[in-house]
Automatic annotation (TrEMBL):
Cofactor dependence: pyridoxal 5'-phosphate
EC number, UniProt record: 4.2.1.22
Gene Ontology MF term list: cystathionine beta-synthase activity
Keyword Repeat: no
Organism the protein comes from: Nesterenkonia lacusekhoensis
Parent-record interval covered: 1 to 334 of 524
Taxon lineage: Bacteria, Bacillati, Actinomycetota, Actinomycetes, Micrococcales
Keywords, sorted A to Z: CBS domain, Lyase, Pyridoxal phosphate
UniProt-recorded name of the protein: Cystathionine beta-synthase
Keyword Transmembrane in record: no
């Protein structure tokens, strides 16, 4: 019989699929890696598994332990899922502005969710970082993975995401295009792919960061933007600036328009940061020829953004262009 022994065994080994419509006029092959097919619905399942297994090995997480992390998003889902399967409780700390629905997802997995106060500075003990530090200490068996600094996060991508892309492209990948939030994906995947391709005739894989316009990674000042999960306003430990060769600053309007096109034209209902990655991949592709193979990583599903990116009124209200009707549905003209 062919079955997985636990849902945790289904993390990773996500497929690549070729883009066919949004790539019109482009000679290079553009492939996307579908991370929403992980059991928790995002790329973050990979780091959750690695960080928890590392903590078990190091004796930091023991039977009866509790995983405590300040997150409301994809990392929370991954940690809740892995913690539960391995017999640990999990507690997540969020801020009030986080949508009720996101907290409900974590609670649905059996996690506890603590909502901190608004309007406190990041270094206050009442910030969501502060509360998580305190809870990790006070709760017996508490363990805080800290995805921004935990070396297991980039290591999980070095050990899984990178090798999967290399094997599936049979070593033909020429460009990797990924977003960077905590930096784990670009640092781990990029490092692996550059290392394994270092001596080939084609030259090493070029690593491109698809960054929200305004984020510091692409030279911005850290001003706010709407796309979620990518970009930063401060430098974080797991972002290794020596890995990327290039950075493309992509506006919210470009990211969201591309996310919508991926849904209507490619059958891929993916989130805003996936739109950022593909928008950047197409810019990278402009100067390339038929032998080039670009792989863009699509971190999560569009299901979590139905009330925003995929809602025409929300798009118009936030100034992301006009909605125009097309033969395949609606499109945002930016
Ligand atoms: N996209 C989404 C939707 C995410 O949640 C994240 C994680 N913050 C990323 C992209 C970026 O991944 P990383 O943290 O590995 O840089």
């Amino acid at each position: 019989m062919k079955y997985a022994h636990s849902v945790v065994d289904l993390i990773g080994r996500t497929p690549l699929v070729k883009l066919n419509r949004v790539t019109e006029g482009i000679e290079a092959t553009v492939l996307v890696k579908l991370e929403y097919l992980n059991p928790g619905g995002s790329i973050k399942d990979r780091i959750a598994l690695k960080m928890i297994e590392d903590a078990e090995k190091a004796g930091e997480l023991k039977p009866g332990g509790v995983v405590v992390e300040p997150t409301s998003g994809n990392t929370g889902v991954g940690l809740a899922l892995v913690a539960q399967q391995k017999g640990y409780r999990s507690v997540f700390i969020t801020v009030p502005k986080v949508a009720q629905e996101k907290r409900d997802v974590l609670r649905a997995y059996g996690a506890d969710v603590v909502v901190g106060p608004t309007g406190v500075s990041a270094d206050s003990p009442l910030s969501y970082y502060g509360i998580s530090d305190q809870l990790a200490e006070e709760i017996e068996g508490g363990y805080k993975p800290d995805q921004f600094s935990n070396p297991g996060a980039p290591a999980s991508h070095y050990e899984t995401t990178g090798p999967e892309i290399w094997e599936d492209t049979e070593g033909k990948i020429t460009h990797l295009v990924v977003g960077a939030g905590t930096g784990g994906t670009v640092s781990g995947t990029g490092h692996y792919l550059k290392e394994v391709s270092a001596d080939r005739e084609l030259g090493p894989v070029r690593v491109v960061v698809a960054d929200p316009d305004g984020s510091i990674y692409s030279g911005g000042e850290g001003r706010p933007y709407f796309v979620e999960g990518v970009g930063e306003d401060v430098w974080v430990k797991n972002y290794d600036p020596s890995v990327p060769d290039d950075h493309y600053a992509i506006t919210d309007a470009e990211s969201f328009a591309m996310a919508r096109r991926l849904a209507t034209e490619e059958g891929l209902l993916v989130g805003g940061s996936s739109g950022t990655a593909v928008a950047a991949a197409l810019k990278v592709a402009e100067g390339l020829g038929p032998d080039d193979v670009i792989v863009a990583v699509l971190p999560d599903s569009g299901r979590g953004y139905l009330a925003k990116i995929f809602n025409d009124q929300w798009m118009i209200d936030h100034g992301f262009g006009e909605v125009v009707s097309t033969s395949t549905g609606t499109e945002i003209s930016v």
